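chain below, 428 aa
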Amino acid sequence: MNIQDIHNLFLQCSSLSIDTRKIEKNSMFFAIKGENFDANTFAKEALDLGALFVVIDNESYFIDERTILVENSLETLQELAKFHRSHLALPIVALTGSNGKTTTKELINVVLSKKFKTKATIGNLNNHIGVPLTLLSFTKETEIGIVEMGANHQKEIEFLCQIAQPDYGYITNFGKAHLEGFGGVEGVIAGKSEMYQYLSANQKTVFVNLEDPIQVEKSKGIKSFTFGVNNQNADLNIQRIEANPFVIINYNDFQIESHLIGLYNSNNINAAVAIGKYFQVQESDIKSAIENYIPANNRSQMMQKGSNEIILDAYNANPSSMAVAITNFLQLDKKNKIMILGDMFELGDESLYEHKVLVDSLVDQKQALCFLIGKSFYANKISNENVQFFETFDLFAEYLKNYEFNSNTILIKGSRGMALERSLEYIS
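prediction:
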């Protein structure tokens, strides 16, 4: 059975799933092998739960005519997604970057959905499995697709672009994320720039933030739509930005008051405004879309617990995002500030050094009390009245049982594996 035959069967289905816990009636189930399981073993269960067809790559689990046997289920999923994308021939906006991908993707989606029927990556399904699933969720009713692409090593963005074939692209930034896989900052720049190379080779369009010299340099020679701050050469010129703590921007006599915290989020907003302008979304709709967007999922969430105001940004962290979050937090016009910061993961040989850089940056500041949690921070432990170290979260939790928060402004940030949102249990 070739990929077109499989696609014809896919079009008969209501949806596609790789998880029997999320099977819908009349869906297509792909049995994708994982590190610790063989999803082929769930093929019969998927059919029993209502799947119309199952795709397997182990003939031992062949059931009946509803079973599609292929050489490799994952590769077939990727080929099917590429075929489906070509079949639909809809415009696709792709984005990648070290920080801010998901927030920017969501902002672009709410802006463009004011004019078009859009479909965007759900959550952070942005890898070699998530991108195909996103593409296969697009239908003939979808007018613009928005695809987030993540990567932790070189050639990954190149591969995802070959599947998604984007017409437009945006790179949020080039930061110190996944240094272990990319082999350092230069590797990050090379890996993310694979999107520029695809767009250039295929005569497509890139959105460029003129505030970022790397974007400016790497996008030279590519058809572009630009934005910048107080930059008359930009296609979109943002006149003013402020954040205390929420970001407000002004352009073309419009003021947008967002629910996003920190100057570091201004670029995410500016990008969404620029893309909205490019696609000729009315400015009043751009304004209302961004002003009504409320961040969730532990990403720059502002919340109140008792007398305490909390900025929960515990979805992820790397040296770049941590540095700007700390800088922004220290600049807030607030009293009784506390930072709860957790280890940053996937930094490889640079890990201890990058944690030391952050510790050193906190030594002399007097604006906030700092709690640093995790083995890498603890390995850089120093004696300082404003900085306290805890090797594990459990030790920190024990400490918090006897700590009283009172009218504090609190920043909580760390890598996903630290799960620092657990700190909320101890704040009242």
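The CA atoms of residues 88 and 212 lie 34 Å apart. The first strand starts at residue 16 and ends at 17.
thats it, cya
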